[in-house]
Amino acid sequence: MSVLWQKRTHGVPRRRRQWERTVAIAIVALTLVVTLLILAYLTLVASNVRLARQIWEVGEAVMTQERVNEALRVEIARQSAIPRLQERSLALGFVPAEKVDFVRLDEEGGER
Amino acid sequence: MMRGPEARVRFITFLLIVVLMLLVMQLVRIQLLEHPAYAQEARALVERYYALPSPPWGLVTDRNGDLLVGNQPVFDVGAEVEMIGDPVAAAERLAPHLHRPVGEIVAALTLRPEEQERPFVWHPLAQGISQADAEALSALHLPWLTLTPSWRRVYPEGHLAAHLLGFVNAEGDGYGLLAYEQRLLRGERVVQMGEVTGSSAPMPEEAVSGFTMPYPGTTLRLTIDRTIQAFVEGELDKALHDYSAESGTIIVMDPRTGAILAMASRPVYEPEHYASYAKEDETSLFLDPAISLAYEPGSVFKLVTVAAALDAGVADLDWSYEDRGYLDYGGIRVYNWDRRAYGQQDLEGLLAHSLNVGAATLATQALGAERFYDYVRAFGFGQTTGIELMEEAPGILRVPGDWQWKDSDLATNAFGQGIAVTPLQMATAVAAIANDGRLMTPYVVAERRYPDGRVVPILPREAGRPISARTARTMWTLMARAVEREVPQAQVPGYRIAGKTGTAQIPVEGGYDPEAIVASFVGFGPIPDPQLLVFVKLDRPHVPPEMRWGSTTAAPVFRRVASRLFTLLHIPPSEAAEGP
Fold first, then answer.
1. CATH code of the domain containing B406
2. Do you find a cis peptide bond into B460, omega within 30 degrees of 0?
3. Complex ipTM, two decimals?
C-alpha cells in the first residue's frame, strides 16, 4: 500500500485489501489476455501478408510460365509450319509428289 | 487547503488527465468524426487504378489442332513523366531498347503544358517490346519506367489463310475471323482500384483482398485443314502465274455440312504486319475477295436457272427449245457466247454448250420473274451467307419492284449477267445442289474451347431447301454429262464430276470490258456421293483469246485441286462408291 493511500486512510489499512488483490489479479489477467489477443492478431496479420506475398509470387510465376509456354508454342508452330517443313523436306532430298494413285487390294489383300 | 507533495501530485494528475482527455478527443476527432476524409486522403496516396497483365487471346488452330494464330509475349513500355528529371538523358538511355528515334522519345517524356498541374502523368512509350529489350530496360533501374506484360498476335504459317484469319487492330476494328470472333477470342482485361507500390504495381495484399483473375480468351478450332489450304494456295499461285491472271479465289467446301476446308484468294497480305500495309495505303488487300467482293458469275449461274425450272416443274429432261442463237426480250437481244445457233436443244445441251439463249428462254418463258427470283433468293443470293467472317457482302440482286430493275434483267440474270454474287455465295448455292437440295450455312469454326475446359462443337446449320432432292439428283446427272461432253479438262480419272464453267464479262462504265473476263469453274464429286466441292475463279487471265474461257483456265485448276484432295481426304473413286 502506498504512502498516499495510507495517508488517505490515516494509516489504517482498509478491509478491502483482499478485494483489491483480486482486482489487481483480474487486471493483470485481462491485460495478459488482451496482449495475447493483440499478439495473435498481429501474428495473423503478418501471416496474411506473408501468404499474400507467396500467392503473389506464385501468381507471377504462373504468369511467367504461361508466357514462356505461349512463346514455346509459337516457336514450335513456326518450326513445324508448312513453308518450313517444305524447306526441310527439300533439304533432306524429298521431292513433291507428281502422281498419286490408289492401290486397290482384293479381299485377300493382294494387289490387283 | 492542501499544500506540499499532495497538491503537486494532484496537480500533475490533473494535468495528465487533461492531456489524456485532449489525446482522446483528438483520437475521437480523427478516428470517428473526420475519419472518412482522412481515409480518403490516405487512399489517394496509396491507391491507383492498376491493370493486371492482359490475359492471352484465344488460339486459332486448324481442324487437326495445328496452330494458325498464337500469342507472342511482349511488353508495353510507359513512363511516369512527372518523375523524370532530364528527358533528353533518359531518352538517350531508352532509345536503343525502344527502337525509336531519340527525338520521339524526348517528346514522349516531356510534360505537356496542360499536364503541368496534374499530380500523376503517364505517357506510353512503346508497344510490343521483346523480352530481351524488356530485360535490358529493367536493368536500367529507372523508377519512373513501367513495363507491362502484353501479347502480340502471331501467325506461324505466315500468310496462309490470311484473308480468312484476318486481324484486329488496337481499336478493335479488323477483318476476317479474328475481327468477327474477337469477343470470344479476346480475354477479359482486369482494371481495378487498389493499393499500389511505388512503381504503380499492385501491392501483394491485393492478391488476397479480392482482385479478379484475368480470363483468357476462347480457343477456336477451325474446319480448314492447313495442308489442304497450303496446297490450294500453291495451286492458285501456279494458276495466276500460268494464266497471268490478276487475282483469283479457290474455295473448297464439304457440301454435306457447309464446312470450309480451304479458302484462298490472291493477292494476299501478311496479317501479322497489317500495320505496314495500312501505312502504304494498301488496305484494299484486307478485303477477302471470297466473301467481300461481288462479281458477275456468268454461266455458272445457269445452274440456278435450270435447277429452278426443274424444281418448279416447268421443265423436265424432255423439255426442249429451238435455239436460234439469240432471244429478244425486254428491249434487248441476248446472244449465245459464240453467237451461234444450236437448233433444238434440251437441258443437257443447254448446260453442256452453256447456252445463254436457253437460260434466258427458261427464265422468261418457262419460269417467269416472280418464280425465278424466289428461287434465286432461296439459293441465298442477295443476302450474306452467315459465315463467321467480317465484312461479308450480300452481293447485288435487283428484283421486280426495285427502281433499277428492268424486264431485260430477267433474261440476262438467267445466265449470270446483271447480277453480282460473291464466290462464297456461288459455292454455297452449288453445294446445295450437291447436298440433295439442302442449303447449308458455310462455316469455319468447328469447335470452341473455353478456358474453363468446356468444349462446344459447332454443328452444321441448314439454311433452307431451295430445291428438292429429286431435282438435285437430276442436276447431278445433267452437270456430270455436261462435264463429260464439253469439259474434259475438269475430269478426274476414276471420279465422276458434276460441274459448270463460267466465263463472265467484267462490267465497266457504259458496258462490258471487251478484253477482260472472269473465268470460273465450280464442281463437286464424286457422283453419286458428293463429298467435296471446289470453286475456282481467275480474274482477268491474260491469255490468247482462244484460251480465255473457264473451261481452258479454271477447269484444269479444278482438276488438279480435286484430284489431290480426293486422295488427301481418303475419298474413294466413284467406281468403288458405286460398288461392283
1. 3.40.710.10
2. no
3. 0.79
pTM, full prediction: 0.83
Mean pLDDT per segment of 10 residues, for chain B of length 580 residues?
76 93 93 89 80 84 95 90 83 89 87 74 86 89 85 93 93 92 85 74 68 79 96 95 94 96 95 88 90 93 95 92 91 89 92 92 93 96 95 93 90 93 97 96 96 94 96 95 91 93 83 84 93 95 83 92 92 63
Question: Cell 530481351 identifies what position?
Answer: B132
Task: Tell me the helix, strand and coil percentages in chain B, rounded to 5.
Answer: 40, 25, 35
Answer yes or no: is B195 within a domain. Answer: no
Evaluated on CA atoms B522, B526, B527, B530, the torsion sign reads negative
Please report whether residue B206 resides in a domain. no
- All three cell numbers of B115: 499536364
Distance from CA of B73 to the nearest CA of A (A): 6
pLDDT 10s digits, A97-108: 766 666 666 666
Give Cα separations from B290 to B82, B243, B438, B490, B542 (angstroms).
52, 20, 21, 21, 21
Residues of the domain holding B550: 226-578
Q: Which of residues 485-524 of B touch A (CB under 8 A)?
A: 494
Task: Kindly report the number of other CB atoms within 10 A of residue B26's CB atom.
Answer: 10
Residues in chain B: 580
CB atoms within 10 A of CB B528: 14
Residue B119 located in a structural domain: no
| Closest chain A C-alpha to B197 CA, distance in angstroms | 13
My answer on whether omega of the bond before B528 falls inside 30° of 0, hence cis, is yes
- 3-class SS of residue B125: strand
- On whether the CB atoms of residues B220 and B260 are closer than 8 A, the answer is no
Residue recorded with cell 500467392: A55
The C-alpha of A108 sits at a distance from chain B's nearest C-alpha, in angstroms, of 17
- First CA to last CA distance, chain A: 122
Nearest by CB to A52, from B72, B208, B494: name it. Answer: B208
Task: Provide the H-helix boundaries in B116-249.
Answer: 131-138, 162-165, 176-180, 182-185, 226-242
Placement of cell 494387289 in the chain: A111
Residue B308 lies in a domain: yes
CB contacts < 8 A (A, B): 74
- Dump the DSSP string for B46-107: HEEEEEPPPPPPPPEE-TT--EEEEEEEEEEEEEEGGG-S-HHHHHHHHHHHHTS-HHHHHH
Distance CA B226, CA B519 (A): 26
- CA separation for the pair B580, B575 (Å, rounded): 8
